[in-house]
Amino acid sequence: QVQVVESGGGLVQTGGSLRLTCAASGRISSINIMAWYRQSAGEQRELVADLSRTGGTSYADSVKGRFTISRDIAKNMVYLQMNGLKPDDTALYYCRIWATVAGVGSSDYWGQGTQVTVSS
Fold first, then answer.
1. Mean pLDDT across 27-44
2. Which is nearest to 18 in space by CA: 108, 74, 101, 90?
């Protein structure tokens, strides 16, 4: 019903930048919240940033001032601009959206993740 695909991960040096992209497709009537999560080896998955339907944003304390979440509503896409990357940012980054699907209702959908590795 809904497909969520992340891209843009890679290997970068400390202090570098990456831009992650998440594209949602399918029978989407509307998207309420779009968010980025990450999970490091041996750690629980954590919320990095989210963006509400009205444009409100929130960030994990560890990324405030360095990461920026944004979206293209018309294309059902959400982005995560990551600057000043640190080794602690190394993780598998996931996109999660809360969407309303025609004839089905509202639910959340996850992508498969994109790996970000920051070398020291």
1. 95
2. 90
